[in-house]
Design brief:
187 residues; eight-stranded mixed sheet; elongated
């Protein structure tokens, strides 16, 4: 029952995000896409999908529910990506669930996977075994958490690293330490 409620909540959140977000990269939109690869698909990779994407490997700008083995979201995309192996995006707002979640620029929402990696800013929640973020404004929960720069972030895990925490315990309560077990933060 808890899993059902969690899934329904995620879908409702992604629908709300989809209603507010419009892609800036294309003007052509479709409600459904089915793809084997980005080049073998019902619609070409430049068409924005505003609805549902089912794929073995799909790659479109989207505000949709994307279910597949590998889900690629280009441009400013949003929704719920549920990838068996990999979810990747340029900029993403919403929820990404997969073994590996990669965002090239910024991510807003929740990423859950074995490995979560963002080279831009994360605003939201990262849950995984290994979490890497260039800039964090949110929470990381995992075994190993790494942040290069944190404006306001909190980490829970076995190993927690915030590189711009320069000293150990001297800036309490604003920051804890560069490396810490169990918890670390910078506000």
């Amino acid at each position: 029952m808890k899993k059902l409620i969690l899934c329904l909540t995620a879908v409702l959140v992604s629908i709300g995000v989809m209603a507010e977000t419009k892609s800036l990269t294309t003007t052509e939109t479709e409600a459904f896409n089915l793809s084997i690869t980005p080049d073998i698909a019902v619609y070409k990779r430049t068409v924005t999908i505003e609805g549902v994407t089912l794929s073995i490997w799909g790659e479109n700008p989207q505000t949709s529910l994307a279910l597949g083995i590998v889900n690629g979201s280009t441009g400013n995309s949003a929704g719920l990506d549920w990838g068996f192996i990999l979810n990747y995006a340029d900029n993403y707002k919403g929820v990404k669930w997969g073994l590996v979640n990669y965002t090239k620029q910024d991510s807003l929402g929740w990423d859950a996977g074995f490995v979560n990696y963002t080279t831009g800013t994360v605003r939201g929640l990262y849950t995984g075994v290994v979490n890497y973020v260039d800039r964090l404004k949110g929470v990381e929960f995992g075994l190993v958490n790494y942040v290069d720069k944190s404006d306001s972030g909190f980490q829970i895990g076995i190993v927690n690293i915030i590189r711009n925490n320069k000293t150990w315990f001297s800036d309490m309560p604003n920051s804890l330490a560069p490396v810490m077990i169990f918890v670390n933060w910078r506000f």
